[in-house]
Amino acid sequence: MSRPSRKPAVKPRDLAAYVFLALAWGLSFLVLLKVVEAFGWAGAVSFRAFVAGATLLLAALVMRRRLDFHFGLWPLAVVGATTVAGQLIGLSYATPRVGTAMAAILVATIPLFSMLMGRLLGIETITRQGLLGLALGFSGLLMLVGFPAVPVTADFIAGCFGMIFSTFCAAFGSVYASLRLRSAGPWEVTTGAFLIGGAMTLPLLLVVPVPAMPGALDFLYLVIAGAGMSALTYVLYFGLVASIGATRAISVEFVVTVVAVLVGAVVLGEPLSTIQLAGGAVIIAGCALVLGLFKPACV
């Protein structure tokens, strides 16, 4: 009788990458606020994307790594428009309006949208466990948005829609890439998507210009956001996916949420209602079910 296959043990370097991603992406919300304040949300998106793409291009040149874009421009344009431009526009516009903690919790809903889109496109099957996870996730979303600890202003509502737009774009780009860019390397996809996303969002500066001449510290924050918290993290993340699998790798988003909520509460003093905290826990539980990280006895 054959024994069920076990998942490979997590190596020390994988654990180090996992912890680094959790800290870098969790703290990135704090850096994002600094970049948006200095460059405006449009500049924060476009300049960050250009810095990330240029960093990867320079790294490829230094490492003498040949980038192969045989799969064409159109798939990269779609991923650049969604995973980079759309996701970062929503994130940069919304985070100053809803707070880093709430933004991070909403980011954790990306797997829920990914599963729904995968099902609509016929590449995912939704099990009873998945349905339960989706129900929990969207219930938590209602708890999070419907019972805020801050006044419900027009700015707050616009921020909520911005975050939902951001997570929708991220999920669509992920599903599309899994369909059309399976043969593409992570360096090519990441580099191309960032450069194209930066170019797509550059005209937005005509509508939302940089408020004033940024200082040296502002440019440092921009480099940290683009090179460290975008380019480096994506390369590490794709390496983690190859090493420990996509499901275990994407679970880092849950730790990211915890880090960002702690940063928002401790460093920025952001309020969250008890119902919102419970909603965040429900969202995380729903995503864990969707990702198959555990299986309750009832299903």
Question: What would you say this structure looks like, in words?
Answer:
The protein is mainly α and 299 residues long. Helices cover 75% and strands 0% of the residues. It contains eleven helices and no strands. Helix 1 (12-62) packs across helix 8. The longest helix has 51 residues, at 12-62. The radius of gyration is 19 Å and the shape is globular.
Brief summary of the model shown:
This protein is mostly helical and 299 residues long. It has helices spanning 12-62, 73-98, 100-107, 110-120, 128-146, 154-180, 186-201, 216-244, 246-250, 252-266, 274-290.
Please specify the SSE layout and strand pairing.
Blueprint (H helix, E strand, L loop, with lengths): L11 H51 L10 H26 L1 H8 L2 H11 L7 H19 L7 H27 L5 H16 L14 H29 L1 H5 L1 H15 L7 H17 L9
Total number of beta strands: 0
Over all CA atoms, what is the radius of gyration? 19 Å
Tally of structural domains: 1
What is the share of helical residues?
over 70%
Give the DSSP E fraction (strand runs of 2 or more residues): under 5%
Mean pLDDT: 83
Outline type = globular
| Major sheet details | none
Spatial separation of the terminal alpha carbons:
26 Å
Order of helices and strands: HHHHHHHHHHH
Give start-end ranges of low-pLDDT stretches.
1-5
Q: Which secondary-structure class do the elements indicate?
A: mainly alpha
Number of helices: 11
